Fold this sequence. Notes:
The protein is mostly beta strands. It is 8% helix and 51% strand. The chain contains two helices and twelve strands; from the N terminus they run ββββββαββββββα. It has helices at 74-77, 160-168, and strands spanning 6-19, 22-29, 32-37, 44-50, 53-60, 62-66, 89-95, 105-108, 113-117, 123-127, 131-135, 140-154. A six-stranded antiparallel sheet has the order 2-1-12-9-4-5, with no helix packed on it. Strand 10 (123-127) and strand 11 (131-135) form a beta hairpin.
Amino acid sequence: LDGDFVTEPRMLLQATLRRDKVQMYEEAALNDIAVSKGADGALMEVEVRIDGLFVYRLRSDGLIIATPTGSTAYSLSAGGPIMIPTVSALAITPICPHMLTNRPVIVPDESEIQITVRGPGSTHLTIDGQVGEDLEPGDRIVCRRSEHTIRLVHPPVTAFFDVLREKLKWGGR
């Protein structure tokens, strides 16, 4: 870039896995945290709470919690919304839900999202499509905005909608 660049702050998402009263695992994500059905192929079943309030019990292939940066990755492929990177929000996107009324939801980034494994089938936690952990019934994943951020570096003329038009072929035939 020869010194001609801009930096852009991006939020990170923190995932904490608790089994019983023990913290088993903690990891930060730039894009998303996904809980999905395991190798047995059976639908997973989880309970979702936002800020301690019951949202629903979800039977599906999975659930994605995405940052604005991650909204154009796995979450978008699963039918989630595109969020502008500067939006202070998180997207909760079910993957192939058993009930078609379970739709993506946008929540403020100050929200704490708790996912509790309820079903008997195997379930897996994945952070940014890389780091993973097998889950057990009763495991709780707590997702919240991390206190840390990351700065992306890019050419000064890069606009978010220019990137979307190019990558998603908007306006093309």
